[in-house]
Amino acid sequence: VLGNQDLQDSIKPQKVEFHSLNFNTTLHWQPGWAREARDALYFVQYKVYGQSTWQNKDECWGISGHVCDLTHETSDIQEPYYSRVRAALAGVYSSWSLSCRFTPWRETMIGPPMVTVVHSNKSITVKLQAPRSPYRRKRGSKIPMTNYYDLLYQVFIINNLLDEQHRVLVYEGKDKVIKIEDLRRGVSYCIVAKMYMPMLDHSSAYSSRQCTVL
Q1: Is the pLDDT of residue 71 over 80?
Q2: pLDDT of 161-179, one tens digit each?
Q3: Phi-psi region of 22 (alpha: psi -120 to 50; beta: other; left: phi over 0)
Q4: CA angle at residue 53 from 6 to 17, to 5 degrees?
Q5: Residue 95 sits in a domain of what CATH number?
Q6: pTM, full prediction
Q7: What residues make up the domain containing 190?
Q8: Per 3-state DSSP, what percentage of the chain is helix, strand, and coil (rounded to 5)?
Q9: Which residue in 81, 119, 129, 209 has the most C-beta neighbors within 10 A?
Q10: d(CA 122, CA 199)
C-alpha cells in the first residue's frame, strides 16, 4: 500500500499544457503514474502573471476528466497566464502541477479559412472567410481573427492531372473574393487555402479542399 507521501507524488498531474485555436483555449493534463490515478479527481486554478492570488475554476473543481476550458478566463489576449492542477484520491491531495506561461495573442494557433468555390466555363471564383474567435461583438456575431492580427489569405490551386501534392500559390492578400482565370475546361481543379501571419511568420493548417471540374 502506498504511504500518503507516495500517493501524493504518484497521483500528481503530469504535462499541464495550454492548447489554443482561434482563442478557444483549453488546459490539458495527464494523470499521475500510479494505477490508482485513474480514479483521481482534479482541481484547476488560474491567474494572470504577476497576480498573487490564484482563482478557482468552478466548472473544473473536482472533475474526473483531463481537460478544462479556460477560453473565458484568458480573454484578455495580451496578458500572460498560468494555470495549475492538483489531484485528489481517497482524501489525499497531490501538490500542484504548474503550466508554462501562456499568452493567447502570441500562442494561439490560427485555423484555416472557410473556402467556397464557384466555377464558370474558364474561371474559378474563390470566396474566403476568416476563422472566428469565440468573442462576440455587441450585436452578437463572433469577431473574426482578422480583427486581432494582420492576416493574409493564401490560396493554392491543385491541378489533379499533374500531381495531388503539387500546390501552386495563386493568391496572397486580404481580398475575400478572388478569381482564377484562363483555366482548362474538362480539367478537375482543387482549391485549398490557409491564413498567413507575416508578423509572427505563422501559417494555419490548410483548409479542406474544394474541387470542381470546369
Answers
A1: yes
A2: 666 668 899 999 999 999 9
A3: left
A4: 55
A5: 2.60.40.10
A6: 0.88
A7: 114-213
A8: 10, 50, 40
A9: 81
A10: 36
